[in-house]
Amino acid sequence: MRPVDRLVAAALLGQVTEVRRMVAADPALLSARNMFGLVRLLLERGADVNGRRGDGMTALHSACWRGLGRVAQELLDAGADPAITAVAGPHRGQTPADTALAQGHLLLAARLDVPGQSVSSPYG
Hints:
Shape: globular
CATH architecture of the domain at 48-112: Alpha Horseshoe
Order of helices and strands: HHHHHHH
Number of helices: 7
CATH superfamily of the domain at 48-112: Ankyrin repeat-containing domain
Helix content: 40-55%
Radius of gyration: 15 Å
CATH class of the domain at 48-112: Mainly Alpha
Strand content: under 5%
CATH topology of the domain at 48-112: Serine Threonine Protein Phosphatase 5, Tetratricopeptide repeat
C-alpha cells in the first residue's frame, strides 16, 4: 500500500495520532495533489465541509492558508461557507479569504471575497 493510501485509511478511521506521525515522518504526504484526493475522498464519505476545529477554522481556511486553490474550489463546490470566521487564536475573526490574503495568496483571496464583506489585510 502506498504511503498516501495509508494516510487516507488512517484519516478515514479517525486515527489522528497515526495521521500526525505519518505527516511528521513524510511532510510530502501533504502535497497539493495528495490533499486534493484526500479532501475529495473525505467529502464523498460524508465529512462535514464546514466542520470546525477548536479555533473555528475550517478546511477551507486551511486550504487558503496553504494556497491550495484546487482544494479550495472542491470545498466550495461541496458547499463550504466562505463567510465563516475563526473564533480564536491568531486567525480570530478571519474568513478563508482573509487567511489567504495574510499568506500572500492574493488571487485565491479575491476569488473567495464574499459580497458585502471586505477582505481585510492583517498588514493595515
